[in-house]
Amino acid sequence: MKVTVYSTPTCPYCVMAKNYLSEKNIPYEDIDVSADPAKAREMIQKSGQRGVPVIDIDGNIIVGFNRTRIDELINQ
Amino acid sequence: MNRTECDVLILGGGPAGLTSAIYAARSMLNTVVVDQNVVGGQVASTYQVANYPGTNGIIRGIDLVNNMKKQAVDFGAQINDMQDIKQIDLSGEIKKLETAKADYYARSVIIATGSVPRKLNVEGEERFTGKGVHYCATCDGAFYYDANVIVVGGGDAAVEEAVFLTRYAKKVFVVHRRDHFSATKSAQEELFKNPSVEVLFNTEVKAINGSDFVTGVKLFDNKNNRTYEMDIDGIFIYIGMQPQSSLFRGQIEIDDYGYIITDENLQTSVKGVFAAGDVRKKEIRQITTAVGDGTVAAIMAGRYIAGLKPEPGKFV
Fold it and tell me: Is the bond leading into B310 cis (omega within 30 degrees of zero)?
């Protein structure tokens, strides 16, 4: 399973999302979109919007810290 | 269906609810907090809290609530967040809450559901949410590097978040329908001395335009009766809050704005049901007043329960 979290350092829901993945022992790549404009564009392309966090689990895109959806995808 | 019985059922895990949980759990009451979202309330998305006593004035909002949460859990409170709340019945001696996962039976209830950002209710707002329309500058501000953005509102949140957005944006326009701000003096000073900020008083947002993302807004100058278009990349809305009380409508007294009416001991029109924090009808809504409310509500709920002299097995 490949998990990517697009986040900004000041966004509290990003922190919650990352903490949650860590709690579940799910390794993830953390991308700070405020420091990487190319990755920010990639995130907007994938999710069709500019809100963070965006979580990519094997190509499935979750916008926001939606724990139910994260659980569904990591338990598959 | 899971069944949970408790002495104090707290709805909402912001500062008011978590403080109630700390007090109730510490007085050995069986305490459960239920939240529809993650615990923390509005404070969780506040970048920094400057005026909470006993902190160093630079504590992050999320750290403040995580500390409160830990304190509540350490005293024995149970916290069930991300719950899908179906309905509540406050009428009987035992109050009943139904969620998708469990039924809760409680001797007393503390409503600390807080409030959510008020919407502008203009054309384009819903369509472009996340696509140029935002309600959390600390979350999404970074997408507006070198961009032109609008902040709508005139209170503390609008003025403070406008200053925050100048970290990224080239230009921040603050649009406010009145001719002055209601934000505190110090927050206004910060704003007016910032060269990247321009204030548009007497101005209202009438519509939000774009294709995939926001490209502009229609503004109305209410002093000169003039409507005009403005190109803009993003719009952050801070026009106050809407209390989350619709679940309780018809069961307890609620005012015309949706705020729950309590007596001075924070009891609502129903015995054993208390309200605390931003959802309650009152003049001042601060983290510190929410914490004060949470304290009073928990102590009064404890006294109410002590007077109830409930017998074991009286549930159902």
Answer: no
The CA distance from A39 to A42, in Å, is: 5
Residue found by looking up tokens 């200053």 in the block: B163
Residue tagged 């970048």 (tokens):
B47
**Rounded to an integer, what distance in angstroms lies between the CA atom of residue A8 and that of residue A30?**
10
Token pair of A48 as six digits: 């069709």
Q: Does A2 touch chain B (CB under 8 A)?
A: no
Q: Which residue, among B272, B250, B274, has the nearest Cα to B262 in the 3D structure?
A: B274
CA distances from A60 to B82, B115, B140, B223 (A): 21, 31, 21, 49
Do B131 and A11 make contact, defined as CB atoms within 8 angstroms? no
Say how many residues make up chain B: 316
Q: Helices in A1-76 by DSSP H: which ranges?
A: 12-23, 37-47, 67-74
- Determine if the pTM surpasses 0.90: no
Cα distances (Å, whole numbers) of residue B310 to B88, B180, B265, B274, B304:
21, 55, 22, 19, 11
* Burial zone of B220 (CB within 10 Å; 0-12 exposed, 13-18 middle, 19+ buried): middle
Q: Which of B114-123, B131-140, B294-303, B304-313 is predicted least confidently?
A: B304-313
Q: A45 and chain B: CB distance < 8 Å anywhere?
A: no
Where does residue B181 rank: exposed (0-12), middle (13-18), buried (19+ CB within 10 A)?
Answer: buried
Return all residues near B309 (Cβ < 8 A) that are at least 6 apart.
none
Task: Give tens-digit pLDDT for B239-285.
Answer: 988 999 999 999 999 999 999 999 999 999 999 999 999 999 999 99
Distance, C-alpha B98 to centroid of its chain: 22
List of residues 6+ apart from B227 with CB closer than 8 A? B206, B218, B219, B220, B221
> Are B235 and B247 in contact, with CB atoms under 8 Å apart?
no
- B54-to-B49, B288, B294 alpha-carbon distances in Å: 11, 11, 18
**Which residues in A lie closer than 8 A to residue B142 (C-beta atoms)?**
8, 10, 33-34, 40, 52
> What is the set of active-site residues of B?
136, 139-140
